[in-house]
Every structure is written in structure tokens, then in C-alpha cells.
Amino acid sequence: MQILGFNKTTLLDYPEHVASTIFTGGCNFRCPFCQNGDLVLNPGSIEGEDENKVLAYLKKHKNMLDGVCITGGEPTLQHDLYDFITRIKALGLMVKLDTNGYNPAALKKLIDDKLVDYVAMDIKNSKEKYAMTTGVADLDINIIDKSVEILLSGSTHYEFRTTVVKELHTMDDFKKIGEWIKGAPSYFLQCYRDSDRVISPGFTAYGKGELESFRELLLKYIPCVELRGLD
Question: Is 151 in contact with 183 (CB distance < 8 Å)?
Fold first, then answer.
């Protein structure tokens, strides 16, 4: 298992739980606003963590932790993700998986085998603008749609979330997203933040009032819509 970052304790990454966060390397998307540019573009340049040492830490501290968040990069690219999560679950810890949804087969197997307790899936944009937003010209939106359908089936706890970028998202996009994921229990709008770690720095964020307008629109389709990342 390629582990390129390990945050031993977080109160933010796994809603309402104390968790450790594991960062994997590599991604099949190239979202220009991605905050983990090195993990996506240069995973080979990052010194990895020893898998057994990470698991040993989790075992030693399992009574202090509720679970583990596995994020990236894109975790489902890891060929041994299933086995790694199996070892975490054997410790009695819950697992939250962050994913871009471009590997529905892996997602479904993890859910069906009850290896994930919570899934956070990114919705990058409306279907029409997905390829542009992800930086993948030949993206197959039907693959994303399969993952959306898997989560909407309600087989595990989940959330959808979108990092909102002024240059990429409009009110019409959120109307289309709302219609697409209607039936989801919750949807989070994450305020974009520019930094040196972004793949293509220079994008800008909407203000709180504009984000609230998107939220009001989305509440027509989804019962719980919340904002994240505001000062």
C-alpha cells in the first residue's frame, strides 16, 4: 500500500469522529484546483510511510480512535486497498473513504463487503462540464454516474461534496447537480482556497453570500446542504 502521508489524529476529516488520515499517491484526474498537487503529479518524489508501522500505530491507539480516513490522490488506484482496509477493520476501527468515483467496481465491492462505513465522493461539476473540470478530455461520465447510483442506493453512509471555484461553477451548474444527485441525504459545498500546493494556482473563491445562494437552490433537491471552509 502506497502511503504518502499519515495524520495521526484529526477531528475534521471523519465527521463526528476522532480519526487518523492516510494519504495515498496518484490520481486519474488532473483537477486544476486540486490542493494536493504533489500527491497527484509527483508521488514518486514523496517519502512514503511504512504500511506495517502505520498499522502498528493504529493498533496501539485503537482505543483512542474511532476510525481511519483514507484519501489521496485517489485511493481506489491502489491495487491492495481492499486488503489494507481489511486489516484496519480487523482492529475494530471504522473506515471513511474519499473518492472521485471513477472506479465504481472497487467502490461497490468495498461497500458490499462492509469494509467502508462512510464514503465522501467528489462531484466535480455538472455532467456537461465534468471533463473540463477534471482535466481529462476523454472522461466517461457514465462511470461517474455508476458511482453516484451506487451511493444513492443507500448501502452505506455517504456524502457528496464539491469544491466551488468561481471560474468553473455557476448557478446553472448547481441546478443540474441538484437534479442529478436528488435523493442524497447531504451535500457539502467546499470553499476554494488558493495555495502553492494547487495544481494550477490562481483560481478564486465565491463569497459567503454567493455560496449561500447556491445552497438555497440546492435545498430544493437535497435536505441537508452545508458550507465548508469559510473563515
Answer: no
Fold annotation for 5-162: TIM Barrel (3.20.20)
Alpha-carbon distance 212 to 63, whole Å?
39
Q: Tens of pLDDT along 24-33?
A: 999 999 999 9
- 43 vs 67: CA distance, rounded Å: 25
DSSP 3: B
Q: Give per-residue pLDDT as tens, 30-87.
A: 999 998 888 888 888 888 999 999 999 999 999 999 999 999 999 999 999 999 999 9
Beta-ladder partners of 121: 99, 160
Under the banding of pLDDT at 50, 70 and 90, the label for residue 231 is low
Strand partners for 67: 19, 94
Tens of pLDDT, residue by residue over 165-194, are 999 999 999 999 999 999 999 999 999 998
Residues forming beta bridges with residue 119, ordered by sequence position: 97, 158
Distance, in Å, from the CA atom of 6 to the CA atom of 65, rounded to the nearest integer, reads 14
- For residue 105, the Cα-to-chain-centroid distance in whole angstroms is 17
Which pairs count as long-range contacts for 77-85, CB under 8 Å and 24+ apart, including other chains? 77/24, 77/26, 77/27, 77/28, 77/103, 78/1, 78/2, 78/24, 80/1, 81/1, 81/24, 81/106, 81/110, 82/106, 82/109, 82/110, 82/113, 82/115, 83/1, 84/1, 84/51, 85/110, 85/115, 85/116
